[in-house]
## 1
Amino acid sequence: MRTSKLGIGAHVALVAIPVVLAVIVGCSSGGSGSGTKTAGTAATTASSTATTAAPQKDVVVTANDFTNIHDMTPVRGFFISNVSGHLKEALAVADNPNGGTYPVGTIIQLIPGEAMVKHIKGYDPKTDDWEFFTLAGSPQGTTITAHGGAEVLNAISHSSCAGCHSAAKPQFDFVCEKNHGCAPLGISDDVIKAVQNSDMRPRLKAGATATTAAG
């Protein structure tokens, strides 16, 4: 009988040891939080990867993106279009008395021979990421004669376009208007209107739009 009792006790002990070890190991893992933390980190990483927005795409404009200014949207005497499909957002900035940052792809023209195009942040910090253009128009379309930053000259004053626009108050995103802080052009609104009406570039066909996405 004693042998039988010892056998049972030994058997119980042998069964209990793995169970106790399992409990100890389990508590140790739970107490450190390593398993949960690893799983949580992996889930967070996967979630972050899934929700990270793709980098914003810049625009590369061609002569065909510069249409007759009367096919653009007029705003207080100048004209706006957007080659990235964000005309509504661009007009919201233009109509905001407190200013704002124009969306990438915005084209602004006062007269047919000049334009400014908004690029992605970091394109050119010296010009608030605007690229300036001088243009030649004809019944056949538009030719880009110069483009860039400070080296592009204003057709009216023959001074740097970027230099003139740098005087705009910061909230107006480098865009000049009469109350934005820029120096006056020195010509009347009637003269500007006459220059605008001289745009000889072909008009878009009925149903076409100057604000379709590029690329």
## 2
Amino acid sequence: MPRILLASIAATPLLVAAPTLAATVHTTLQLATPEGPGAEVGSVMIMDSPQGARIMLDLHGLPPGQRGFHGFHVHENGSCATSKGPDGKLVPAGAAGAHFDPAGTGRHMGPEGQGHLGDLPRVEVAANGTARENLTAPRIKDVSALKGKALMLHVGGDNYTDTPPLGGGGARLACGVLE
């Protein structure tokens, strides 16, 4: 009987769970200028994690911003080209469109609120113009949904409300398309 049991075990295929590969998207950010994308200011990589999207920044050549912070968002379109605004004036990186809001909330509530899914944590820029930090966007559970969207760093800070409009982030400072 032991021989049959051993033969039976030996004939059973061994099932091994393959490691799950986390989805990853990345981009190079370039300054948003009236002429189109300008000088490169670094790179961003976003990957899936159990806590939500993990965002790794390696940026340089940036102004410090409001109290050192800049608004940071995923925008709906995969373009950093200049476009005309409603007043007919050129908007640097305007072709990126509005904040990524697949649920149609129409609200700016920050990375932990129930508004735009594209609301990311603020980016803190050091006095020397660098931002090398890891951030987490807890509501983004599948970063592959961000592929082909624009990633935008804004001139001003972000208070995660709709007053002033879009939390006061203001003009578009740097942009990149997530691949």
## 3
Amino acid sequence: MANQITEHLREMATNRGLKLVASRRRKPGGDFGKYGLNDARGEPVFGINKEGLTADAPAIEDYLRGATSNAWSKSAGSAKPRPKPKAEPEAKAAPRPKPKPRFKVKVENLLTRLPAAKRAEAFTELLARPGIRIERIVSRGQATPEDAPMMQAQDEWVLLLEGAAGLRIADSNEVTLHAGDHVWIAAGQKHWVTWTARDRPTVWLAVHLD
């Protein structure tokens, strides 16, 4: 068994570039059963001093294994990592052509290119559908004669977009309307526009509901 251990340690030492020195004493006492290590020049490396051999078999094996680990670590540390290959830039997908619009939106403004309306109010029909009619009315100083009140057979919603005006509905007091004010006039109600601004156009949006 002792010879097997010695041969095992000797082989490990040889693989590390070292030489195993084993005790030649066969009787207990002194360096019996001890080992040491010399380098290739015969210089003591481990387990040898002036008195002789001092290391047992497990200590020699641990030393040799540790020497292997240190050699591997130094080798690994000195090796430069391989540069990672540069990733090729992804090809950009060609932009999809935008679909052509099916129709063009026509944008108009109720407050631009207004008629003068100096002699009479100007009426412009904006939309006419069954049950509804929308028109723009531009006034400039006009008023409804007292003896000729207005009266429709359908309900009417009126919004004052610009300017100023006075309005009176039958059996009510006169009210003053400014931009943003709106009024509901029921079908069959008599009503009068008592005055409209003279210094600027007054623009109405009237919605007639049948």
## 4
Amino acid sequence: MARKTILAAGGIVVRGGASPRIAVVQRSKDERWVLPRGKLERNENPAAGARREAVEETGHRVKVHEFLGAITYRARGRPKVVQFWRMHAAANPSRDVMKDIVAVEWLPLAAAVRRLSYPLEKLFLRHVGRRMLKRRRHKATRRRTPRHKSAVRSAKRHRVKRRKSSRRAHAR
């Protein structure tokens, strides 16, 4: 008889701008360091469950972004699937962490990977974390530059007009 799959969800929770930090939490039951995650409640949407778990385990309100992937392993003889989303945390905590969590640390990517207790989570975070942070930086720089030639010309005209008007103001 096949045993029912355990469904869980969580997040790679990031906060900070120029030097982003990733949340890792220490569980009280075994003192292991993991990414914020947990079992889904009956009929719970995985993204909503991931958000709930991240808030409960980090104490920070989070905004859920794109799906990053999943890891699968066996837990107590049953298959377990944990889906992860990229999340951005508010700067300050909004509530206490749940009693099952001993500590929360916000670490740079490399330190977060080293801190995790499970090799599969380390591998997942190393691979997905690099891509995720690169994409974040790329989006931030891409927004500043116009996409089309007409937009570039328009931006140049705007700068020229602004310079001319400031020269007139200084001449008076």
